[in-house]
Amino acid sequence: MPSEEHGFSHIAADAARARADALDALPPSRRGPLHGQLIPIKDLCDVAGMPTSFGSAERAILARHTDPLARRLLEAGAIIPGKTLTPELGMTGYTEPVGLPAPDNPRLPGRTPGGSSGGAAVAVARGLVPAAHGTDGGGSLRIPAAACGLASIKTPRDPAGGGLVTAGFLAPTLSRCAALSGLRPHPGRRLIGVMDRPLWAETPVSPEARRALADAADALSTRGHELRPIRPERLDAERLFAAFRDIFSSSLLSVPTTPHESEIVSWLRECGRRAHRTSACRLMAEASGPHGRVARALGVDALLTPMLAFAPPPHGHFSSLPPEQNFLEQTRWSPWGSLANITGMSALCVPWRGGAGRPGGVGLHLCAVSMGAGELLALGLELEEEGRCAAADA
Fold first, then answer.
1. Of the options 3.30.540.10, 3.40.50.2000, 3.40.190.10, 3.90.1300.10, the CATH number for the domain spanning 3-181
2. Residue 29: cis peptide before it, omega within 30 degrees of 0
3. Which of 31, 100, 268, 323 is such that its CA lies 20 to 30 A from the CA of 280?
4. What's the farthest any 2 CA atoms get from each other in the chain?
């Protein structure tokens, strides 16, 4: 099976077999909670002894140390079978690495699996692994989850500090993502805002996404939650997205260039040079948290939107455009996801299996506006159950 189909940039088969044998030799009392589970690591993070390419063959190094999250997985008994494909430096919502294969969407062949955790989504959607590690700095877990019919959880930003990016997992179910993230559900009746119009960019929302959103809202209402329509005008969307773009692009200023760097990365670095990072970080701090500017403006416990405005496009759809148009088109495709990154909210994506029955390309997105990750997880589990019921009735 080629990389386009399995989603890996590196497979450590011999090391994985040796670790499996060593784990099986342990007595039950010494086995960890993830004993023997295969969990690959996104190729932006180091695992000692494995190459890290950062989404470009020219940037590849042999890692000498192991990323803290990967180390925790190993300590819990997991097996890391390799690294999964990602776009260059994880900077796009599609996965077309430089000098490496572009993974294909298992649910929608010939189309992008999303990004930047695209290889991780492919490996899980193919059934090769039960879950995969990823990171999310603007929707990079949730976009491929929606594109490939999977679940994902973006954990909240550390209150002590942190930028746009958090780590997490993709899996077939939210419960598996939650177990890996150490989350427990906290049920309760909630006030949920429903936003069916794009937040960041003017773009049509597909009938399938609108129908999934309406069906999900009806299902949550039936379960006793209060639903309220939310208009994008309640937020200062233009300033918020400008702050996101400035912080996102300025992260490249400390990263060296390469001879064959992708056009979109070069363009984003130039945007970073012009960015107003200090004022953007100030706005991010003001917007963040359960009592921040965004939570006050929305006035709800959680926000429900589609994850993607339209179905995953064919390979090359984004990269064939000039860089500025490429970035705008990615924003049109996912015009809600990065709100959770600029505010630090917990967020999740749930595959919706209503109607056509088979997930892929339609995902529902929940953000914890003024409540915790455990409360959001409980809502997500209800939504996931309703999606399965809708598929059974279809």
1. 3.90.1300.10
2. no
3. 323
4. 60
C-alpha pair distances (Å), 210 with each of 85, 182, 197: 31, 32, 9
Give DSSP secondary structure letters for 242-266.
HHHHHHHHHTTTTSPP-TT--HHHH
Q: Which residues are catalytic?
A: 42, 116, 140
Mean pLDDT, residues 232-261: 96
Contacts of 21 (CB under 8 A, 6+ apart): none
How does strand 363-368 pair with strand 347-351? antiparallel
CB 85 within 8 A of CB 97: yes
| pLDDT on residue 360 | 61
Q: What is the pLDDT of residue 388?
A: 74
Enter the tokens of residue 61: 């190094």
pLDDT at 49: 98
Centre a 10 Å sphere on the Cβ of residue 254 and count the other Cβ atoms it contains: 7
Task: Look up tokens 């805002």; give the residue.
Answer: 193
Q: Is 169 helix (H, G, I), strand (E, B) or coil?
A: strand
Structure confidence at residue 231 (pLDDT):
96
Q: What is the pLDDT of residues 195-223, one digit of tens each?
A: 999 999 999 999 999 999 999 999 999 99
- Render the burial of 285-306: b for 16+ CB within 10 Å, e for the rest: eebbbbebbbbeebebbbbbbb
The pLDDT tens digits for 149-180 are: 999 999 999 776 678 999 999 999 999 999 99
Residue 358 backbone dihedrals phi, psi, to 5 degrees: -105, 125
Distance, CA of 284 to chain centre: 20
Record the tokens describing residue 129, joined without a space.
């692994």
Q: How far apart are the first and last CA of the chain?
A: 33
Q: Is 139 helix (H, G, I), strand (E, B) or coil?
A: coil
CA distances from 197 to 202, 219, 220, 229, 309 (A): 8, 20, 19, 10, 9
**Claim: this prediction has a pTM higher than 0.85:** yes
**Packing angle, helices 207-222 and 373-393, rounded to 10:** 110
